[in-house]
């Protein structure tokens, strides 16, 4: 019967809170994670009625005991201070008689609070920006620094787009400045004094998508706030919502978003009447949406709704003449921030920066210049100095001429990712930051190059 001990250890080692309740509402199992999540010890709760510790209306296990139907991947608030994603299932014996319920709950309180703080901070920054520069004569597109033809052509198209309410899709690699472009379009439009609400679709847990984007009515689900809560789309009413990494939207949310785009009406969870809204939609992605459509991962009708105006952010490797201007701009910016002097950039140093491929684009060169200001000692940044800040693979001998340019680039990119993961001891968030790319992009590259986790 050693299997029992293995099973017990498995349940106790699980990071999610696991609760088992019998048909009399008595708790017969409560693992370590449940103790940590709810600050209730096994000694306190085992063999006691679960309703002695939680309100009957706030318990998913009571709903499943009543309906005898499982609940999968649902957002739930068992307490006012706890947000969880819950999977709860009825348990039946050989005679198909209900004998209890098992509930597995993942604590996402920290994620929800961070998201709320981010939402609040973004709104405060937007309001502060409007107060600080209400009559700025400069174009909002001036934040897109560069003199290359590719960038100026994109800015001309974006400027024309700003004068309309047309739904816009911004394509481009990670780090090319898609959100900066979206903000510039908003700031150049007649909606500039209304909210600009950015939403990173790749950062929202799937179970929270609907409530985050569309909001909910009071009492629409267990734990819902009294008075309900507006979703991100409703918060952007009169202004602009920016859906970054839109390719990460689950298919069921794509259907709901399509309905909003078609009807200009938002339906909170638990509301069948809906509310008329006036929102400008700008979406962005670094993925190939047409390929996702072929794989049935992205709806074609939603793609055509979003793709009224299409803008493509050029990668930095196609903007070689902008590299010097960007380097000097970021060096001055961070020298001011850290009260440091700006190092000189000789011609040979600039040549090294121009030869580098910049897989992380603007984000990568910005991060590099910040590191240089913080760590570099001396008044001049030599070519050897800058090679010390770039990925090790860049300073290795070039590949044989038989290698094609795309393959050479992929080999360099793969090596850079391997080295970043090794330096960061496998921490993908730190590695992504060092590489100047998003964590979602890093996961995609790891999969592409078959790198071990």
UniProtKB/TrEMBL annotation:
The keyword Manganese does not apply. Residues 7-58 form the PAS domain. It comes from the Bacteria. InterPro entries: AAA+_ATPase, AAA_lid_NorR, Homeodomain-like_sf, HTH_Fis, P-loop_NTPase, PAS, PAS-like_dom_sf, Sigma_54_int. The keyword Transmembrane does not apply. Residues 144-374 form the Sigma-54 factor interaction domain. It holds the Pfam family AAA_lid_14. One of its GO terms (biological process) is regulation of DNA-templated transcription. This is Sigma-54-dependent Fis family transcriptional regulator. GO terms for molecular function: ATP binding; sequence-specific DNA binding. Keywords: ATP-binding, Nucleotide-binding, Transcription, Transcription regulation.
């Amino acid at each position: 019967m050693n299997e029992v001990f293995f099973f017990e250890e498995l349940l106790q080692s699980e990071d999610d809170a696991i609760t088992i309740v019998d048909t009399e509402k008595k708790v017969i199992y409560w693992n370590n994670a449940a103790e940590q999540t709810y600050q209730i010890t096994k000694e306190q709760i085992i063999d006691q009625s679960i309703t002695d510790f939680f309100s009957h209306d706030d318990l998913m296990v009571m709903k499943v005991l009543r309906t005898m139907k499982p609940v999968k991947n649902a957002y739930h608030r068992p307490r006012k201070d706890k947000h969880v994603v819950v999977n709860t299932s009825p348990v039946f014996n050989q005679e198909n008689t209900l004998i209890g319920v098992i509930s597995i709950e993942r604590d996402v309180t920290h994620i929800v609070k961070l998201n709320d703080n981010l939402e609040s901070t973004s709104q405060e920054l937007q309001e502060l920006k409007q107060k600080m520069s209400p009559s700025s004569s400069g174009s909002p597109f001036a934040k897109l620094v560069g003199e290359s033809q590719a960038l100026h052509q994109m800015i001309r198209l974006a400027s024309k787009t700003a004068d309309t309410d047309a739904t816009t899709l911004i394509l481009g690699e990670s780090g090319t400045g898609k959100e900066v472009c979206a903000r510039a379009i908003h700031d150049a439009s007649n909606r500039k004094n209304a909210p600009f609400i950015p939403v990173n679709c790749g950062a929202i847990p799937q179970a929270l998508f609907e409530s985050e984007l569309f909001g909910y009515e009071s009492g629409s689900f267990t734990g819902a706030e009294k008075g309900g809560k507006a979703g991100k789309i409703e918060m952007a009413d009169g202004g602009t919502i920016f859906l970054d990494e839109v390719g990460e939207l689950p298919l069921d949310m794509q259907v709901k978003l399509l309905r909003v785009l078609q009807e200009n009406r938002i339906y909170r969870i638990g509301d069948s009447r809906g509310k008329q809204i006036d929102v400008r939609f700008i979406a962005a992605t670094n993925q190939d949406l047409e390929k996702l459509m072929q794989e049935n991962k992205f709806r074609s009708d939603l793609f055509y709704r979003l793709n009224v105006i299409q803008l493509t952010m050029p990668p930095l490797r196609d903007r070689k003449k902008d590299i010097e201007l960007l380097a000097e701009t970021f060096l001055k910016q961070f020298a001011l921030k850290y009260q440091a002097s700006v190092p000189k950039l000789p011609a040979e140093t600039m040549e090294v920066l121009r030869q580098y491929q910049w897989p992380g684009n603007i984000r990568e060169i910005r991060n590099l210049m910040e590191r240089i200001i913080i760590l570099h000692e001396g008044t001049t940044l030599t070519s050897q100095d800058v090679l010390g800040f770039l990925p090790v693979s860049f300073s290795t001998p070039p590949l044989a001429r038989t290698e094609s340019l795309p393959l050479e680039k992929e080999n360099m990119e793969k090596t850079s990712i391997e080295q970043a993961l090794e330096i960061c001891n496998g921490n993908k968030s730190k590695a992504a930051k060092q590489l100047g790319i998003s964590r979602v992009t890093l996961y995609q590259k790891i999969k592409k190059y078959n790198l071990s986790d």
